Amino acid sequence: MPAARISRRRAIQALGGLGLGAMGLLTGGCTFTKGTPPITDVGLDKKPAPGRKTNIEVYSVWGSTVGAGMVNLAKKFEEAQPDIGVRVTYAPAGMGGGAVQQKLFTAIAGGNPPDVGQLVPSQAPQWVELGIMTDLTSRYRAAGLSQDDFFAPVWESITYKGSVWQMQWDADPNFPFFWNKQLFEDSGLDPEKPPKTLEEVDEYSAKILKKSGANVTKIGMIPWDSYGYSNSLFTWGFGFGAEFYDKEREEVTPDHEYSVKALEWIVKYAKSVGGADRVTVTPPGLQLHPFSTGNIGMAPLVAPNYRDIKTNAKDMKIGATLLPFEPPGAKAPGAGAWIGGWGMFIPATARHKDEAWEFLRWVGATDEGTKAQWETVGFPPGYRKAAVLAEIRDDPVMAPFYDVLTTATNIRPPVPVADFYFTQLDEQISNAVLGLSTPIQALRTVKKNVMGEWDRFRKEVEA
Amino acid sequence: MTTTTAQSSSAERRSAARRPARTPQQRRNFFWGLVFTSPAIIGLLWFTLYPVLVSLYYSFTSATMMKPAQWLGLGNYESLVSDSSWWDSLGNTLYYIVVSVPLGIAVALFLAILLNLNVRGQSIYRVIFYLPAIVPLVASAVVWLYVFNPQYGVFNTVLGWFGITGPGWLASPEWAMPALIIFSTWGAGNLMIILLAGLQDVPQDLHDQAKVDGAGVFRRFRHVSLPFLSPHLLFALVTGLIAGFQFFTPVFVLTNGTGGPAGKTLVSGLYLYQNAFQFFKVGYASAIAWVLFIIVGLGTALVFRLVGRRVYYGGA
């Protein structure tokens, strides 16, 4: 039988067909969009209310709904007093969970800073040393605000070298622990009995695990992906009883005994499911947290993710409790929780510091402002005396977060090279989880590199 | 005095012999030419040349953007030598270049040859294959996040039809860089157009003569088309090399700027960005940029030396 000949015409037609097909698949064939689409940059260029004595500029790192919330918050501030107008400018944060704010940095470096900027609280030591931030200690004192007015981890975050540098208006309680009752039931587990220890997490996980070939399609938990590798190690490290820096000795301690144990547990977990790169429980295009797919048994969640799931996956039966822990290092459930969030600061070269402080104080440390913030942006305040906390406690969605907010004791290590530390953790934990190094090697490498960077930074600041 | 006058007039004569004196109209034209081009010239000097020179200065300092810079001499360059992350980033960049540049050229050439065939609907095919090149890079990268999804993505779905379990792509340390390389060939349309133009410049009579002499399709391509395409291929190689060293946007979008997994996609451009904007080490980042510039310069010179003399410029 003669071999079939393919003409050039046929060849190019087939190739064209393939091209069209591929384009079709790429552009339309893969959309499994679920959830509420984001509101794109709504009203982010808010102009100040007219006729004010002074106008201040506030940078918002958020677009979408949170950005719109910032605009509404600024409007409420303008309604609360007659003198200060607020311009809200969109200044998006890039990579690193807000670490990179190019617009803010270039505005400050170029001598045209906003009056109020945003930061992740753990960045403050580096920004203070670089002379970016204004010391707010005397303003706090004059306003009668002290340590007692804030949750303990929040106060630890906003102070550095005996001074106060920021107003933490968002105390992000990371994390309550959630479980999928239906998946528990389907896996032969008691849907009303969440795990208390990490040993129990392992037991439950073994029952939940489902694979399709080498790929994992249902998993108990993804302990290396609790909002990134470094946040995962902080969470589970605290859950084992670890400490990540020694304040007195000015030394990072990623290789703390319990931190190593936590990473060993994470690595073992990844191996037990066939490798971290084999977990494919999330369809592409999903705008909700992967927990909403019903393919993940247990997960720590932040408040916006949980709120979105409750809104969009109403039938999902979800239980909430405190994070499982691991004795003997950690003593009780919830030991792994920590407070993250966002602070506002006044750049050292800002033009309207008095008015900027009025805004900070109102948003972060008054009953009226914290309530306005809760109603517009929707983050729990760090101000312990805020009346709105009762509302948050009684909110069915936020109640688990209230429990964490009022009991958590940890924060991410606020060292002067915090972002370098987190980046190193991300890289080295990734190495360990993917089997390219051992946990102890990975964490010792982090310590060596971070201490080297800290020394360099010290010399640079002292020079 | 006399001597000086004599010398001046001699110089003027020589000058006049070389270049005829400008007329008032020419002088006016020159003046207005300068006036109208001055915004571009000033822009070039202020927004390109000045930052380039400042970055050279910063590369010898501890510049942070926020504090006055301290002079470090060659300190940043010495630190680079002992920085394992920088060496890793350079290795990742070279891996990307060594695979993606030849692959991109091969794919573009293959498509150009096919699209040069005389078939019905040729222009439609050309549009189809050029289209990806005009889609913004960030938008393409976001779409490719779906394509690389290990369970639901196009690649692994197709592999699954043949009973093959595809890799984790962007989650896998072995496959993350190949995934980025595959993505980069998606934009081969630009180069394809250039090579197609080159193919259409090959004189048809040479093909006809070769055919009469009994040369087959491959020999005609090898001995007729390829020499005429060689300047275009040299262009593709040099620009591909330069673009490869500047590789940034896809890796930033597809890996969320982390260079993961396990640092396997941490390319030089991304490492530079991290140092400048995340760690406030602007001086160090400038040193990285200048070393990259030197490497690109040397690489380009090497390409011209090794390949340049083999290029055929038609009758030139």
Automatic annotation (TrEMBL), chain A:
Q: Which InterPro entries match?
A: Bact_solute-bd_prot1, SBP
Q: What keywords are assigned to this protein?
A: Sugar transport, Transport
Say if the entry is tagged with keyword Transport. Answer: yes
Reply yes or no: does the keyword Transport apply: yes
* Membrane-spanning residues: none
Q: What is this protein called?
A: Multiple sugar transport system substrate-binding protein
From which source organism is this entry?
A: Actinopolymorpha cephalotaxi
Automatic annotation (TrEMBL), chain B:
- Enumerate the PROSITE patterns for this protein: ABC_TM1
Which parts of the sequence belong to the ABC transmembrane type-1 domain? Answer: 90-303
Membrane-spanning intervals of the chain: 30-58, 94-115, 127-147, 175-199, 228-248, 287-307
Record's compositionally biased regions (Low complexity): 1-10
| Name of the molecule in the record | Multiple sugar transport system permease protein
Task: List GO terms (cellular component aspect).
Answer: plasma membrane
Location in or out of the cell:
Cell membrane
What's the source species for this entry?
A: Actinopolymorpha cephalotaxi
Output the InterPro entries linked to this UniProt entry: ABC_transporter_permease (IPR051393), MetI-like (IPR000515), MetI-like_sf (IPR035906)
Instruction: Identify the stretch(es) annotated as Disordered.
Output: 1-22
Q: Membrane topology for this entry?
A: Multi-pass membrane protein
Grouped into one coarse class, the protein's main location is: membrane
What the record says about family reads:
Belongs to the binding-protein-dependent transport system permease family.
One Pfam family, please name it. Answer: BPD_transp_1
**Cited PANTHER family:** ABC TRANSPORTER PERMEASE PROTEIN (PTHR30193), ABC TRANSPORTER PERMEASE PROTEIN YESP-RELATED (PTHR30193:SF1)
